[in-house]
């Protein structure tokens, strides 16, 4: 269980507005299967920028990125979308559920896109995830009716639906109160322990980071400790 | 599996803003309705007006034109062959209006598979005598049955019976205007003088109204035999052969062919009535232009609404892209939304257009010129419904194209970080 899920090799990135500015400088690291990694650093140190590059959504960088052993750098938009669909699950600071669909349909959306299993199997998986995350009763509700913590757990369930290689989170607890943060954190921990799920979470909360397997600390676009 | 998901997402987005969707769809519905109603009514009217002339006009008319011989004797003389001929004061030859060997020609033409039927006709100039007044007029000798079958003769007989022309000896049907001048009702007797000076008395068995008043003031109809009798001609005498074809577009070709084969003047309907076709096409162009303008306006409405929807749904687009929906897929979702509006609005428009045109069809429309028409004419041509639905799809597709492109280019990183 020590295969490398995510690998960054010599990643550089610049912003050109208003003047040329190096956001990321020579980023090298690996995430192995089953690891629960957190990225911390001060605001503006480039940790979110790094996450979006790792997530394949941002393609404007130098260096090489591998997800599940496959090189991502240079792939087309459509191919990257397929990789995100199958291999990567996302949890954002704001919940980004689609209000037009019920909770269950929100969770099913990436799975229906992937369409590798029959509808019934997908529904079973969605219900199983809802049950695991203790939100079964919310299945038929509209996302508007949910609390922040509940929404975030639905977002986690959506991230898990395609059994991704890695789940990435951008300050998933940044917008939540103490109690809900705790629930979300323990959910992540549960995923790591029960399903051996790899997780890469960007946070500015040192308490949250302390409790993960490994901390990557960034400063001024460089990794200073990992 | 992939297609229904596109539709499902598009439907959900549509329903989230169903009031806007409805307004957009109503725009399409309205324009399609007007497009259908306008074209049905316009072409109905066109058909009616064209019918005034075209129904009564043979597709090919065979006749003998009086004119000078195209080959003069001097040109045939061998000794002057190499000379340049200048002939002064050429006169029309001793040609007759009668069609030579008309029986054989008619038999031959009737057997042609391209021909629907023929109707022989005699034109004769006469004077109608009313007291000491002499009114110039024309008597057409016609075969009532053929004329009715091919040129809807009975439709235009407004009083009396067309068949009496054949059944009653020495009978005549007068044009409405002519009958008014002569004060001749059905059953009365009119007196006429032929160009050779002989006088005849004919019984009026009906009134005729073509819709073209000038014609109705001069023309009248009698049977072939009656006209042959008053002109003192044998019963093979015919001045015109009117040919109706199965396909009107073949008229110019056949006219040329008949001209060559029978050595006779042949005129096709396109040459004789070119101005009617011009009028028809201009009216059609106007109707299409108005209909398409309406659709384009509706298209801009859809464009607006979709653009607004994209700004509102930025977050949703970003999350769709983040969870693995490609730009192309997002593009398809928005095209689907536009087409959804187009299909829904278009179908309702077709239905409403049909209802509106059948409503117009019920409005009374009485005019002295058109005895057979009682309500406004409508042309229920399925082609317009087809064009209407095609146009509604095309315009909505185009209206959705640019917003969809914009949606597909949304950068999820910008949206997600921007919060």
From TrEMBL, chain A:
InterPro entries tied to this protein: AAA+_ATPase, ABC_transporter-like_ATP-bd, ABC_transporter-like_CS, MacB-like_ATP-bd, P-loop_NTPase
Molecular-function annotations in GO: ATP binding
Translocase keyword on record: yes
Record keywords, A-Z: ATP-binding, Nucleotide-binding, Translocase, Transport
Protein known as: ABC transporter ATP-binding protein
A Pfam match: ABC_tran
Lineage: superkingdom: Bacteria
Every ABC transporter domain range: 6-226
Family: Belongs to the ABC transporter superfamily.
UniProtKB/TrEMBL annotation, chain B:
Subcellular location: Cell membrane
Transmembrane segments: 21-42, 285-306, 333-356, 383-402
Domain MacB-like periplasmic core: 21-259
Main subcellular location of this protein, as a coarse class: membrane
Alphabetical list of InterPro entries matching this protein: ABC3_permease_C (IPR003838), Lipoprotein-release_system (IPR051447), MacB_PCD (IPR025857)
This protein's record includes keyword Transmembrane: yes
Domain ABC3 transporter permease C-terminal: 290-412
Membrane-topology descriptor: Multi-pass membrane protein
Keywords carried by this UniProt record: Cell membrane, Membrane, Transmembrane, Transmembrane helix
Family in the record: Belongs to the ABC-4 integral membrane protein family. LolC/E subfamily.
Protein's name in the database: ABC transporter permease
